[in-house]
Amino acid sequence: MKKILFLILIILMNCSSKKSESTNLDVELKKNWTEFNTKDSIPELLNLALKKILKNNFEIANPNEKFNQTDVLVYDSSPIRQLKFLSKKNNTWRIVYIQGGIGKHYVYAECKIINDSISDFKISQTTLNLVNNDSIDKYLAKKKLKPNSVKIIMK
What we know:
This protein is about 30% helix and about 25% strand. The protein is an alpha+beta fold and about 160 residues long. It has two domains: about 1-30; about 35-150, no CATH class. The chain has a six-stranded antiparallel sheet. The radius of gyration is 22 Å and the shape is globular.
């Protein structure tokens, strides 16, 4: 009888350990952002929202592609924006791009995309060097980056 109880105890401890590992993996996955490095990865709803807010066609260059960084048009057909990075965690999307022209700066936008709807849209312009999600999280926590909520009505 002692052997059976001992065996049951070992099985229960083993199952409990595996559940804990699974939970830790789930928590770790929720902390991680998936990063994309092409403009083609921008979700259509996010692209449409940026066009609506900026009231233009939202042309953007891929990272490391030429773009017009100043108000002097160096590359006639090049956009005035360059994608810095795009990332997703669960339903939350983040985009950071460099806006060329007078006073070159970074633009940060974040939103939630669920199925065919976009919500919780926030956007901010900054001179802070936004290089990755860790830097964004740091600036948000220190309140150096203060995105403004924008109501998006898609029709």
